Amino acid sequence: MSKSSIPIGLLFSQSGPYQMMGGEMLKSARMAIDEVNADNQFDFELVPHLRDPAGVVSAYHTACEHLIREVGVDHIVGCYTSASRKQVLPIIERTDRLLWHPARYEGFECSDNIIYVGAAPNHAVVPLIRYMLDHLARDVFCVGSNYVWTWETNRVTRELVSAVGGSILAERLIDLGELNVEHIVEEIVSRRPPVVLNTLVGESSYIFMRALHAATLKARFTTTVLSCSLCEPELKIIGGNAAAGCITSSAYFESIDLLENRAFVSRWKDRHGIDSSPSVDGQSTYVSIMLLARAIKRAGSTSVNDVLSAAANHCYQSPQGPIWVDPDNNHCFLTPRLARSTKNEQFDIFWEAEAPQKPDPYLSGLDAAPLVRPHSTSTSPLPQQQRLRLLN
Amino acid sequence: MTQQSPLSVRGRIALTIMHDERELGIIRRQLNRLGVQIVPWGDGPPTTEADVVLLDADLFPIEQVPALPIDPTTPIIALVGIETPSRLKWLLDLKPASFLIKPIRSAGLYSALVMAFGIAQQRTEAIERIKHLEFRVKSRRLVIAAILYLMEHRKLTEAAAFALIRRTAMQRRTTIEELSAEIVASGGQVPLAIHPS
Predict the structure, then answer these.
(1) Terminus of chain A with fewer CB atoms < 10 Å: N or C?
(2) Distance (Å) from the C-alpha of residue A151 to the closest C-alpha of chain B?
(3) Model confidence pLDDT, tens digit, residues A172-208
(4) Which helix (H) or strand (E) is A98 found in, with range?
(5) ipTM
């Protein structure tokens, strides 16, 4: 039986400031497409059309327009930053196409023409800061790249921290791609905050992590770094010792002990080498394409309305566990997790939600009030239902 | 009473004065995501409980400003379709706090709500401030009368008389205007602060 061909657009930057992520996402997209095409449960074949905007924001619109008007795709998987997504959103909506967006983002958007597969803010930053307040400290030093993800992450952090009488000790922002981090590291060493929230991206983050590690060793003090974005390939770039001990919030880690994930990691390593690791955004790209293929199959069509209805509430057992699209807001139900990075460039997962959590892109369900408690050294400072269930 | 931040929209009540079912559907979905409750127009008695009104600006004839079942301080978000000057002039009389351009989509509503709550808060503060300033302007004559009285009866300079009134008002935790009214009304029979000679 010959399979029909369905063109899909892939929009991943292969150069520029986040090329590493773009590369990881493309590798995962190709792997998912190959698996769909080889699988007889699908009576169609996905034909990828890659466009590489090279990290230039304005190039995303042109690339997207070309995919829609020239190639004629109904579905596009891609974008990484919010700036790139906002570039393509008008043309996607105007032409009624569907963008499958794999990366986590800061929330406060809800287009009927986008499926948000990555973590919403209630999945990412909220559990991380709750853990910090519950187990680490009330005061935090924030360092980040100067863009919307950092601003919004820090705003949520401030809201939660001030609800319990804590404070943001400092908010140090540097330009995307900036490599001069020494002054921030010096300030951290001199002020000795208990916790550092790192929302730097790419090379800025890698250099910062190495410099902070060296400086704290020399000054003989320890602080805990928090992140909502670090992934295994980045731990390898930073280097095991400097990257170790970072508390990271994510829906995906290579170390997730699920049958689907062990098989996924094994197939990944077969393709990319035993020393390589899938990343959170890569895995999410893989999941995006699997959700898309399953929805097309169920809908029997590629039309946006049919695919949207077919995707809604349809659970897929993915490497990161059960995941499905919430038709209320086009974001995904997924399982938040917290892990500690280890010296061998992996993550040791120590907490996960008991079940996939409903996405809340506007944080309308976020209530800081239950966090408020009298200052004490009590070991159970949060009401039971608000406390994080620890795995070990 | 602590004021709710304009950024926090959860738990607020929106009155929708709209007819278009498709647009109402989009608005309902988005308000639901934001945790905003919806009161449709025309259901039961007029409501004054709304925190914000979403008003389809194309819904009414322009001869008159409609009597809306809301408190005049409740902010209005206008949903604008026809952008003719005649329609916009009509809309200005309703003093909308923010607006959305039709066709309505989910994007934009949160911004419009935040702007509306922010503007409403600023307007309330401005009205309070104006009331306060108007009171002070009106009371000016009394303050001048009290100063003149003290200048004459206590042989003080204008500056010293005013300083005495201010010091006494502070000690008695009252305003300069109220104390001045008392001085004038009682013919100076008000114990004043001891002033340095």
Answers:
(1) N
(2) 15
(3) 999 988 999 999 999 999 999 999 999 998 899 999 9
(4) strand A98-101
(5) 0.75
